[in-house]
Specification:
Radius of gyration: 21 Å
CATH topology of the largest domain: Rossmann fold
Structural class: alpha/beta
Number of strands: 14
Shape: elongated
Strand content: 15-25%
Order of helices and strands: EHHEHEHEHEEHHEEEHEHEHEHEHEH
CATH superfamily of the largest domain: Glycogen Phosphorylase B
Length: 331
Amino acid sequence: MIEKPPRPLIVRLRNFVGDTVLALPALRLLQQHGYRLELVGKGWARALLESEGWPVHVRPGPWRERVAQLRALRQRLAAEDPGFERRSNTLLLPYAFSAALDARLAGLRAEGHATEARSWLMRRGLPRRAGRHSLVEYWELACDFLGVQAEPPTAIEMRVSPQQREQADALLASRGLTRGRFVLICPFANGSVEFLDRSWPAFPEFVQRLQASGRAIVIVPGPAEVEGARRLYPQACSLEGVPLGVYAALLQAAGAVVANDTGPAHLAAGVGARLLSLWGPIDASRWAPWGPSVTLLRRGAGEWGGEWGGEWGGEWVGVDQALAAVDQALP
């Protein structure tokens, strides 16, 4: 029997690191069902997904350029695969109206969630079910596109390349740090959710006391976070200008990661790092990092720990409890 070559499929990624990590199981499911993925997203997605081997086409800003990019990609893939234009050939992970409009203007036959009154722009609008964790939303979207039923994986198992691991180890060695013997902190979280702050207010005090206990502390600030990292966390060894894939390797090398509700927390969970995820009043059942290596730290609505899930309306954990969790994770 002659095996059919994989069918090309354009997948529009979301614009956030955390969502891209949470979409990984869905992307792999599409690949397992015979699709060759052509991803369209932010520039950082190339480094993030380097080990998966999927091409990432960096999405331009102006809408005319976005449409031109998709149109050119459509023409190339149609030349490679005669059936490309006769089937659904694009899957939209973003919920936005503009994502569907770009695909329609480029002549693509797209599918995606039936949100933002955009179903008329797509070949098919798929249901977005209430009460789902974001990873499950992306997983079910892929299942609906494929016409299959399957349970999502319990772990994301994001890959880190040998080159990324080597670069991370070299960075650590240059600062006298040993794999598995430091705490990596992710104290920044831009914006809010449902008008609620995503940043643990006790993070500066926690880091001061963590240093006093003799722990080695590492921080990997983004370009907009460098000044804040130097000012608020002078106790931490700051590794600046680190590519996203190498950041993933650093998270994997940490003895423990302590993080707000932020993209690097999802990245840490994705690579199986020992993650202590700090949550206050935001709904963890939808947004918490996914995987067996995650411990949620939150007070109220029941004590948290061990796995994602739970209720709305908790409170921030205290510094003592967070330090005790670090001691348990990293004796």
